[in-house]
Amino acid sequence: MSEGMTTDATEERGPTTMQFQAEVSRLLEIVAKSLYSHKEVFLRELVSNASDACDKLRYAALTRPELAADDPTYRITLSVDRKARTLTVADNGIGMDRQDLIDNLGTIARSGTLSFVNGLSGDAKKDMALIGQFGVGFYSAFMVADRVTVVSRKAGDSQGWRWESDGKGAFTVAEAEGAGRGTSVILHLAEGEDEYLDEVRLRRIVKTYSDHIAVPVMLAKAEGEPEQMNRAAALWTRPKSEITADEYKEFYHHVGHAYDDPWLTIHYRAEGVLEYTGLLFVPSVQPFDLFNPERKHHLKLYVRRVFVADEVEGLLPPYLRFLRGIVDSEDLPLNVSREMLQSNPMVSRIRQGLTKRVLSEIGRKAREDATSYATFWNSFGAVLKEGIYEDFENRDTLLELARFRSTAADGLVSLEDYLGRMKEGQDAIFVITGDDVESLSRSPQLEGFRAKGVEVLLLTDPVDEFWVTAVGKFKDKPFKSVTRGGADLGRIKGGEERKDEPAPEGMDELIALFKDALKDEVKDVRRSERLTDSPVCLVADENDMDMHLERLLRQHKQLQSTSKRILEINPGHPLVAGIAAVKDREQVRELAFLLLDQARIVEGEALPDPLAFARRMASALQRGLTPAS
Fold it and tell me: What is the total count of domains within the chain?
């Protein structure tokens, strides 16, 4: 029994009352407040679930034909009882047993539940997209029903079960005698929802939302044969010229359990040695669990129009895990197992073809509509960057698709844009990594680059630390971090050229004193080419690990020791010049530690001795407030 549930009966096979999982109660509360802009989508969700149930039984019956032998013609049937004011959506698919009913209708048995619920904001449009991604469309039935009854018998079982709830916190489960194979969802309509007893209205809803469902959707008649309301042909088998944008959109809603509109639709057929059809969609809304390590692909595999598996590993690389859709192969065996899928060479070739096609279509969209592409990149760019690190075969394509924030533009820039703006004498693509664009743009390490008019890419995704190192260069231009030594700004022409002014008197002695005082804390102390406004900054030695990467690894317990940094001093800063004029060597040593701690704070580093810093700061302030004698 799921955690958080209680029962009022000890006999498992008898009637049992249970409380909904807290997350389900939260969902039902949102649904009750008319989350959806069009209530009729409840029927789309129930028909979609019924279609999935038929697909699952069709596949299971390949190896166990006895499961479907009693009723081999799959269908979904809508029936209306005007007197009882009920609408029933029934299928003869895989069905559910007692535990399935509890798990599927009483809990959200999926990783990321807590983050999902925390993501519900109360904003109807955003919450609708999240609920769709989570695949819990069954609960939309409570938008039009004040009570829902589910009667189901699992294929291969003899015992049926009844689930019932008013959606207000609890549900009951009991045995159901005489239940047929599959599932019947009976909606006891609320006051004011009689339109869903109207056959004309039901036909229009099915035609609008479920015409693409490959299983026949029938309307039961009081007299005569049931009427088929949908085309019942697999959408992806039809010519693209015959499919409307609305039909693609509704198929995306069905196959992806989504409520947003697709940002990109990719429909093509590969022919030749290997034949398959792909109908793939890029969402317009980022899935809430996109970065959950347990997240699976939402790609369904069919073999000659027969459903084989969903969440198939290997059909797409992990960095394309945001895609929804189907792949229908003409060549894979119908009885292919999940284990075989992971090692089958045909799956590997399909993966190659799908990946290249998807990246090509995304690239086309990037060229045609930069504004729309920027929206896509803000949602999925961090995931595509994983591909730059992992996918050597498609690395060049992914680098061309990549977009970045930079010091030279308000919007996103490509690497080609960057190369076109490089200064005379510049031989590297300069980058800086950190947690957010705003803090990076204020980094003292950028001062010299900004003065020279040299563009720096602002990288804020954790994966940036890894792909930059793995790639090394783009079109023969190496990537170089501005937080490391060796920038050699003096060779770059442009911006404000620095005049070779003599260093303030006593600067060499000051640096020597700083080195002696900080010898256990830093690798070196030296004059800075990069600073124009700040007195000091910390940089990594050219061959050491980047500072932000080291900080990330320490946070994740992947690194115990830290590298010593180089303290760079701006000789032209009034504070540094003033310290150089101080005669008291002990006071200079104290100020050296104070400036080092200041540089650490700017870099977001923890101070090794906050009390010592506070003491030095108080002492310096006191000296500044004491009148000269």
Answer: 4
CATH of the domain at 333: 3.30.230.80
Give the residue from 262, 307, 267, 311 showing the smallest Cα distance to 289: 311
pLDDT by residue (tens digit) across 436-480?
999 899 899 899 899 889 999 999 998 998 999 899 999 999 999
Confidence of residue 135 (pLDDT cuts 50, 70, 90): very low
Count CB atoms within 10 A of the CB of residue 576. 25
Closest CA to 320 of 362, 277, 364: 362
- Residue range of the domain that includes 182: 16-230
The position carrying tokens 């006999």 is 11
pLDDT in tens, 400-421: 999 999 998 889 999 999 999 9
Same domain, 475 and 511: no
Which CATH number does the domain housing residue 35 bear? 3.30.565.10
Least confident of 60-64, 276-280, 306-310: 306-310
3-state DSSP call for residue 172?
strand
Residue the block writes with tokens 């060049």: 396
Tokens of 234: 């697999």
The structure's pTM equals 0.74
Angle, in degrees to the nearest 10, between helices 370-390 and 464-471? 70
Query: 601 and 467, same structural domain?
Result: no
Q: Is residue 498 part of a domain?
A: no
Last-in-domain residue among 374, 394, 421: 374
